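Researcher: Next entry in the queue.
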Amino acid sequence: MTMATTTSPASPTAMPKRIFNFSAGPATLPESVLLQAREDILSIFGSGIGIMEHSHRGKEFIRVIEEAEADCRTLANISDDYAVLFLQGGATTQFATIPMNFLPSGKTADYLNTGVWTTKAIKEAKNLGSVNVAFEGKDCDFDHVPTQEELSLTDGAAYLHYCSNNTIFGTQYKTLPSSDAPLIADMSSDIFSRPLDINAHAMIYAGAQKNLGPAGTALIIIRKDFMETGAAGLPSMFDYRQHAAKGSSLNTPPTFGIYVIGQVFKWLLNQGGIDTLNTRNIEKSALLYDAIDTSNGFYSCVSKPECRSLMNVSFKSPNADLDAKFVQEALDNDMSGLKGHRSAGGLRASIYNAFPRQGCEVLAQFMRDFTKANG
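Model: Structure for this entry, 375 residues:
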């Protein structure tokens, strides 16, 4: 029997108007990925069934998740010493799952507090064990990430946790923090945007909604021998070993999220990989930082120059009224998402991997025009 179809009021091939989306997340995705998804929502691999409708046990989705893992490994040169997992709950679920697994009684975990998300991670970890805040960024209004000399590390720590890029305050590590303890990184906002030393880490995790795909899914890259040290007797959904043993399908996984992440991996590879994206990201962010630095003080950065983020450019105009005017006039000119987070105030342009250079060029010119009109 042939199923009846309904007719959309818009042509299925018509491309709707797109504006520049500077949102910190959920954020811009590659248009080619969105267009492919539009097709695969209706029918993937010529199956006549859309990706969101296929069984996670069926051959179509198994192909999707296997290709996603293989492309992820190729993209970041991830060895078989590491498990690659696609889990539900975003990065926030990992804030608790990590100490549940790796912070045993009698041990202390070191955390570097460089922003809102590490503050939340520290709060969750303290509910489950002993935590040493080895760097407290609140004391400097989170205007930089620490140097090695600023760290107060614990001898024999269970692990050292840090966030590689801080979306709200616009700071980013240029060199990795060093510790004898296993290194765990929240890379939600800059994963695969620049060269990444996988082997220096015991675990890397990232919520998908900034650089990888839809909200609600997390990518986990975890060294297998470290994973095996996890606590015994955990609930299944909080045990990385059980997820790894079932190929990220311990229960019904977030199939559409994994599909989109897989498509983004293919896009990244087709663009030339991480090194190519890193070059683009340096150039894109430089356009905006130059507009700030040449504004004769009209704009000011939230972060110190030595740790400016390539992904999130956080800045302020002379006062809150001008910030609000900037946001509204930018929106009137098809630029959305430029209001700063309430914790930092001001303005923020998030320019992840998929954000086009053209948008940075348009914003930089708008910033200069706004300075002339309001300076």
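Model: DSSP finds ten helices and 14 strands in the chain.
Researcher: Noted, moving on.
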